[in-house]
Amino acid sequence: MTLADTAQTTAESSLGSLVAQMANAIAASHYPKGDHAALRRWAPDQAVPLAFYRLWLHYLAADLPPEGQTPAWMTLAWGLAMLGEGAHDPRRPLGQALAETKFAEGRLERLLSAPEEVRLKLFMDAVRFLAAKGESFDWREAAQFLLITDPAKREALHRRIAAAFYRHQHKEF
Amino acid sequence: MYDLLTDPLIGVHTPEGVQRVTLPELLAGLSAGKINGYTGLRAHQADPWHVFLVQLAASIQARHPTAALPTDPGYWRDGLLDLAEGKPSAWHLVWEEVTQPAFMQHPWTDTDKDESSTFKVTATSPDELDVVMTARGHDIKSARTHNSDIEAWLFAIVTSQTISPYGGGKGTIHGVVRMNSGIGSRCIVAWVADPHPSKRFIRETQRSIRERSKILEQGFKFRQQGVCLTWIKPWNRKENQFTIEDLEPFFIESCRFIRLVSTNGEISVRRAPTRPQVGPDSFRNGNVGDPWLPIVSKTQAALNIKAPGFSPQIITDLVFFNRIEKHGFLLAEQLDDYGFLIGSVLASDGNCKTDGFYHIELPVPPKARLAIINKQSRETLGHLAQQLLADAKTVQQILDTALVLLSEGGCGPEKPDCEPEKPDFERVKAWLANSRKDFSRHWEAQFFPALWRGAEEAPEAVRQGWQQYLIDGAQALLDQAIERLPLPANRTWRAITQAQGVFRAMLHKKELLRPQRNRIESLTPEEATS
Question: What NCBIfam families does the record point to (chain A) (predicted)?
Fold first, then answer.
């Protein structure tokens, strides 16, 4: 394994483990119901609830994310709370989950082509759709979807989500 | 007027600086190795002019052999006059007595004089005379050279009379015989040790003297000493002027019946309709022993090159004699002959239109020269060349499929209810054509460097590197297409995914490598936003 590969793996695992920790913390039986409800009630135009800071500082025992990333991490916390226990399945890509729940192709097109200002809202709509069907998926991809800002990296991620979506959608025909 | 034998009409670069010289002085200067270049010769005129000079020199040498090419202009002047059978007007660019020949212009008969008012004025400036139909292909605007530029008239008439194809005119405007039929194109191709004008002239003249003997033995029925300058004899225009039996191997064609006329100091060109100059008509496959003209083995006819000119496939055929006869200047005599493969052609579309001028100057590295000259390694390299070409073709097809799928919005057989997008079809079609050209440019530029590496490295390693280069290039073009092609708004991601999917799947099916693309990196929260 080269040094670059090691760095890559470390980078992936650091985000992956953070997402996994957050999913486990929110799904844990001892996680306060009040905090759980506060996370689920959050909407993008509202202030970040105290439950979010408590999640980071107390349950994850980590430093708070940079201020610019707070909405993205809050959205992740909201989504994990929405889906509840078993929300995070690292072996099931987001595209696959959307395809298998018959998420409309047009909606996926809009989600992946969305301008910055509605990106978060459309992602939340997709999460609500999956939550309504009790689906789980790989939340690392969700984290990447919300956190990556570099156009080339974002494009590559979109391709990966779309590829998984169409690959599993085609099983229908 | 404007006597090539005595008037210094030709601008040249010499070690002493720029000079103007006569034609005999030019031949002497070339023989002495003192001509470094020309001041007024255009790119597309260079090879026809070179061939013209070598044919002249070799024909003079055949009549008056010398140990080395003479550096005395007197020798060449006498030789030129001798070729013209003592008619000095044959070397004048403009000669008012029309019953006498002028340079590359036939003498008129009494009938011609009577009919001269019906002769068409075809040019009033040099580049209107110069293979006129090539103007768009040469990227030069016609009528840019001035009427009074005599040197430009000289080069234009040589080019026109030496490489003109069939020009229509209801079957009355014919081209040269050194091409496969009237709708073909005359290629000029040779291995050249050094493209320096003087060095190339000396080497090819010396080789031409030997080639001339071979051509005479080959049963073309040329005469040892026949007509060399075809314009010195009258031509009734209603019949072929010559058969091969009248001519000698390096006969210099003057394929069209034209005359430069000077009126009040202004030169214009008049042209009359004719039969083809060299007959019979059944004899039009171009195979007349010309050492610069490649011959196709199967048909024994001259190679006809169309746009886009010297493709890697054609060059490979020439270098390794795939379907091409081992003949003329495609056969090197010494190792250093394989320095450069130089070629030019005025491509014809077969419809009285030309399709551009194409030129190659392909340098060959020393190790590759050794591989080419050795029979066994030449075959190995030739085989590798075919494999590299086949790989390029395969990846091109894969890319084409992916691009078409992309442009149609990702509609494939698995989605029968999906109607392919057809808005702006012409634009998309043009875009696809450009993408194909981009890919061709991408690999053609690297084809020969990759091939020559095969002379030093294991062919398998070269091929693997080549395939990776092709695949990465195709992936980059596909990515570019995804960014730029106007995709249907409601199917963007379907189109992207399907195109990418089919691209990868076809690579896999053909047992080719995957593209080396950057994966998503730096996925730490901090780095993701950097």
Answer: casB_cse2
